[in-house]
Automatic annotation (TrEMBL), chain A:
GO terms for cellular component: plasma membrane. This is cytochrome-c oxidase. The chain crosses the membrane at residues 57-77, 97-118, 139-158, 184-210, 222-249, 269-293, 305-326, 338-360, 372-394, 414-435, 447-469, 499-520, 631-647. Its main location: membrane. NCBIfam families: CtaD_CoxA. Residues 37-561 form the Cytochrome oxidase subunit I profile domain. It is found in: Cell membrane. Keywords: Cell membrane, Copper, Electron transport, Heme, Iron, Membrane, Metal-binding, Respiratory chain, Translocase, Transmembrane, Transmembrane helix, Transport.
UniProtKB/TrEMBL annotation, chain B:
One of its GO terms (molecular function) is cytochrome-c oxidase activity. One of its GO terms (biological process) is aerobic electron transport chain. The keyword Transmembrane helix applies. Belongs to the cytochrome c oxidase subunit 3 family. SUPFAM superfamilies: Cytochrome c oxidase subunit III-like. One of its GO terms (cellular component) is plasma membrane. This is Unannotated protein. It is a multi-pass membrane protein. It is found in: Cell membrane. The chain crosses the membrane at residues 5-24, 44-65, 72-92, 112-135, 156-175. Coiled coil: none annotated.
Length: 674, 177
């Protein structure tokens, strides 16, 4: 539901403008069952919240939890491979580890962490007071949590999924994967998929409809632009995996034979469906990282982003071409020479817009007054690591070379340089850069630098040697290697495997230091002072409000005149000398904005329907696996929750502006006023 | 806006399902294929019912635009009833086919056929739920015609589901295998 601003309303909800007090919301009778949860403190204020900032923080916390879980899985894998004939894990458990490591990192860490940034920052960056559909936003978060928990309960219920994150069929059919792990995987991802889809719709509408007055598309911050591209990718990629997962569920739980070769099925169907989703997914993972460094690099180079338009359009180009390259994951499956040639060329083409971005970032730094803060270090680290990963990617585009490298550690090296080097380093840059915005305190820079260097060294020690052992032919997903076949001299597999394992622990210590840093900054007797309003001399709208922002974000919705609006308010060019000089501080700008704060600010009220609806889904999913009766029970809760949701007014005690049961639309005109 | 985006996403959902069906439509035993099993006259009638419901939906949207809550609710209810008739027809059709021996797991053709048309049926059902919720909301709201835009959104969804059915009906039923 939109945030609504209606000064002519007969009984406006009073909000104290200019003082930072949260808007007061009057309690009302919810439809039928319980009183509406309107408290603004305590656990209820989090569980039933529809505030995009609280949801963003919760996304972040949960994703961080899954990051640690996925990390522990990775460490176990590296422990197993540290020596010959590893005995840390059994073969079956090893299969579960690498499957769940990849699934957790992709679906439960990188994607939701990107969603955390997008949720928190997009409304702030475009000068809105919330997203377009706050309750759907809450629903998305709870779906993600419910799906993630559901997926991980499989560890305790007979074993997790073990078919690799792409779950190739018929390899993952009940015959070869008899536990319920794959069922949990298919249903869990289905539920988190709902989160991605609703999130995508929500953010696209927010970005296109709710920008502050004066902010044309080409005056949007680059972060917002890239996130917009990602949301379009999600919008069209998620339904394809939905189909694939449904077919898989029918296959495994209801006896259909979509992927059963004996019944005449075509095993390539799964591969096509999966990779039509899977390749856009690659860009869904990495573009948020790009988005973050595109904000961080200009700020710490004290220069505007070089070629803003080029970055925008190359991002969009990646979004388009990303749809035409999926079959390069299938070069080894016998597609035929024409398909292979076409996808090979398309894959080389996509390197162009990616290269454009690298050039733009480099030229942004060129000649700038670079400040090497932790955030900047992570951003530069991204540019370097991603370039390495991108270059090894080009070697995969050449189909003959790819056929040689398929299923070796070379591939593992490549995608970790792109995903870890591209996405994860970007997210860490974002943590350090926006931490003072979200929590009002600067993370410790000294610990931050240790964090960065340990992660950087650990990452290169872990994934660098994988290029060597991959080209030597060590296959991925093998639970052990033997001394007898390890080779000699520089190319000795044993040596490089040990290096990689040591590296992975250095990497883990680096990540651990990040958690230490959070604790150090926020511990009760911390002497860390409150962060200044504008600690980095930033350029975008989110810094024109308090840190952390008030519940309604802005007292007055700022009017935008330029790209990098905040920078232009702080600095002016002296026309006589041609010099740029500071004309206002962040405090002055904020005071001026607050002085003309809006009198009446409506915020959407909390609701308990999103969480009920979201947690009814795993009930249905357990039903699919164990007992059909549970499907009915879950389905009834879903039905009830949808009606309850549809009939509940978005603003307590105000019956206006309801979305239909399916979470469809809202009043566009009203949505743009806010 | 959101509904348009959602429908864009839905296009790929049905795209995937239709592709699966087209891939597998020929894979069945000799006597239980699409040419033997479909009752085209019956399905044509139920398709006609669904298309008529689009007409009543248009009437509901126009009544909502004129702030006539009573007629809006009437047309919404009729639309929901027509939709329910279609779903009922589908259930009947499935039952007949099942009696003739075409179960969900009989062949690749049957699995993909039931999945595709079943998904469409679920969409129609969700549409009916939305229509009923709309009637409920309209009854509660104090200001007449205040939900016009929401009615239009649901209308959009409803028309989309109809259009998808036209595609499915053509590809699945009319074009001989």
């Amino acid at each position: 539901m939109a945030i609504i601003e209606r000064p002519t309303d007969p009984a406006p909800v009073p909000a104290v403008a200019g003082s930072g007090a949260p808007a007061v919301v009057t309690p009302s009778q919810a439809y039928g069952v319980l009183r509406r949860p309107v408290s603004s403190t305590g656990w209820r204020s989090w569980v039933f919240t529809v505030d995009h900032k609280k949801l963003g923080i919760m996304y972040g916390v949960v994703a961080m939890f899954f990051f640690i879980m996925g990390g522990i899985e990775a460490l176990l894998i590296r422990l197993q491979l540290a020596g010959p004939e590893g005995t840390v894990l059994s073969a079956g458990l090893y299969n579960e580890m690498f499957t769940m490591h990849a699934t957790t990192m992709v679906f439960l860490f990188v994607m939701p962490m990107a969603a955390a940034f997008a949720n928190y920052l997009i409304p702030l960056q475009i000068g809105a007071r919330d997203v377009a559909f706050p309750r759907i936003n809450a629903f998305g978060f709870w779906c993600f949590l419910a799906g993630g928990l559901f997926l991980n309960t499989s560890w305790f219920l007979g074993g997790a999924a073990d078919g690799g994150w792409f779950m190739y069929q018929p390899n993952a059919s009940p015959l070869y994967s008899p536990t319920n792990g794959v069922d949990f995987w298919a249903l869990g991802l289905q539920i988190t998929g709902i989160a991605s889809l609703t999130g995508a719709i929500n953010l696209i509408v927010t970005i296109l409809n709710m920008r502050a007055p004066g902010m044309t598309l080409m005056k949007m911050p680059i972060f917002t632009w890239m996130i917009l591209v990602v949301q379009f990718l999600l919008l069209f990629a998620m339904p394809v995996i939905t189909v694939a997962l449904f077919l898989l569920m029918f296959q495994r739980s209801f006896g259909a034979t979509f992927f059963d070769v004996a019944a005449g099925a075509d095993p390539l169907l799964w591969q096509h469906l999966f990779w039509i989703f899977g390749h856009p997914e690659v860009y869904i993972i990495v573009l948020p990282g790009f988005a973050i460094v595109s904000e961080v690099l200009p700020v710490f180079s004290r220069k505007p982003l070089f070629g803003y338009r080029f970055v925008v359009f190359s991002g969009a180009a990646i979004g388009f071409v990303g749809w035409g390259v999926w079959a390069h994951h299938m070069f080894a499956s016998g597609l035929g020479p024409v398909s292979v040639a076409v996808f090979s060329v398309a894959t080389m083409l996509i390197a162009i817009p990616t290269g454009v971005k690298i050039v733009n970032w480099t030229l942004t730094m060129w000649g700038g007054k670079i400040q090497f803060t932790t955030a900047m270090l992570f951003a530069v680290g991204l540019v370097v690591s991603f370039t390495i990963g991108g270059l090894s990617g080009v070697t995969h585009a050449v189909a003959p070379s790819d056929t040689q490298q398929t299923d070796t550690y070379y591939i593992v090296a490549h995608f970790h340089y792109t995903i870890f080097g591209g996405a994860v380093l970007g997210l860490f840059a974002g943590f350090y850069y926006w931490w003072p915005k979200a929590f009002g305190k600067l993370l410790n820079e000294k610990l931050g630098k240790w964090n960065f260097w340990l992660m950087m060294i650990g990452m290169n020690m872990t994934f660098g040697p994988m290029h060597i052992i991959g080209l030597q032919g060590q296959p991925r997903r093998m639970m052990n290697w033997t001394e007898a076949r390890a080779g000699e001299g520089f190319f000795n597999l044993g040596f490089w495997n040990r290096v990689a394992s040591v590296g992975s622990f250095i990497l883990a210590i680096g990540v651990f230091l990040f958690l230490v840093n959070i604790w150090y900054t926020h511990r009760a007797k911390s002497n860390t002072p409150k962060a200044p309003l504008d600690p980095w001399d930033a350029r975008t709208l989110e810094w024109i409000t308090q840190s952390p922002p008030k519940e309604h974000n802005f007292d007055k919705v700022p009017t935008v005149h330029a790209l990098d609006e905040f920078f232009h308010r702080k600095y002016e060019v002296d026309h006589e000398t041609g010099e740029v000089r500071k004309v206002a501080t962040a405090e002055e700008i904020l005071a001026a904005e607050e002085a003309q704060g809006d009198k009446h600010i409506h915020l959407p009220s909390p609701s308990y329907w999103p969480i009920i609806l979201a947690f009814a889904l795993p009930v249905m999913a357990y039903g699919v696996i164990y007992n059909r009766l549970l499907i009915v029970v879950g389905g009834l809760i879903v039905l009830l929750a949808m009606f309850g949701w549809a009939l509940e007014p978005s603003v307590a005690d105000d019956s206006d502006y309801d979305p239909p049961a399916e979470g469809g639309g809202t009043n566009k005109e009203l949505a743009t006023i806010g | 806006m959101a509904m348009w985006l959602f429908l864009g996403s839905e296009c790929l959902l049905f795209g995937g399902l239709i592709s699966t069906y087209m891939l597998y439509r020929g894979r069945h035993s000799a006597e239980l294929g699409p040419d033997q099993i479909f009752d085209i006259p019956f399905t044509s009638v139920s398709s006609f019912v669904l298309l008529m419901s689009s007409l009543t939906m248009v009437l509901a949207v126009s009544a909502a635009a004129q702030k006539d809550d009573r007629r809006t609710n009437l047309w919404l209810t009729i639309t929901a009833l027509l939709g329910a008739t279609f779903v009922g027809g589908q259930v009947y059709e499935f039952t007949v086919m099942y009696r003739e021996g075409l179960g969900f797991t009989t062949s690749l053709f049957s699995s993909s056929f039931y999945t595709l048309t079943g998904f469409h049926g679920v969409h129609v059902t969700v549409g009916i739920i939305m229509l009923m919720a709309l009637v409920g909301i309209n009854k509660r709201s104090r200001v007449p015609g205040d939900k016009a835009e929401v009615v239009e959104m649901v209308g959009l969804y409803w028309h989309f589901v109809d259009v998808v059915w036209i595609i499915i009906f053509t590809l699945v039923y009319l074009i001989p295998a």
